[in-house]
Amino acid sequence: MQADAAVLIAELRRLGETALAEKLDRAQYGSTSGEILGDIGAALLQRAGLKAKLSDEARRAWDNLRAEVDRAYPGWSFRSLFTWRKR
């Protein structure tokens, strides 16, 4: 997971998406797996349209990170559509 995060963070910085890159970077250092995966999942869900601008390698990293979150929390993206906007 860290290798995928590193690839994605580097690509986001290259594209000038520093706020998202920093958010993902900070999320890696959460205190619990739920905090880590939840923060990464929320960040990727909120900026899903950005995926189209990524390189092939970064797109694979994005998909791998989302898959990791989905393995830990099946159905998270559907539920998150209704909860993250309320924050």
CA(first)-CA(last) distance: 26 Å
SSE order:
HHHHH
User: Largest sheet at a glance?
Assistant: none
The amount of helix comes to over 70%
How much of the polypeptide forms β-strand, as a percent range? under 5%
Q: Round the mean pLDDT to the nearest integer and report it.
A: 84
Low-pLDDT sequence parts? none
- Overall strand count: 0
Helix count, DSSP H or I runs of 4 or more residues: 5
What Rg is obtained from the alpha carbons, in whole angstroms? Answer: 12 Å
Task: Write down the overall geometry.
Answer: globular
Q: How many independent structural domains?
A: 1
Summing up helix and strand content along with how strands pair, one would put the structural category as mainly alpha
Structure in words:
With 87 residues, this protein is mostly helical. It has one domain. Helix content is 71%, strand content 0%. It has five helices and no strands. It has helices spanning 2-14, 18-27, 33-46, 56-72, 76-83. Helix 1 (2-14) packs antiparallel against helix 2 (18-27), helix 2 packs antiparallel against helix 3 and helix 3 (33-46) packs across helix 4 (56-72). The longest helix has 17 residues, at 56-72.
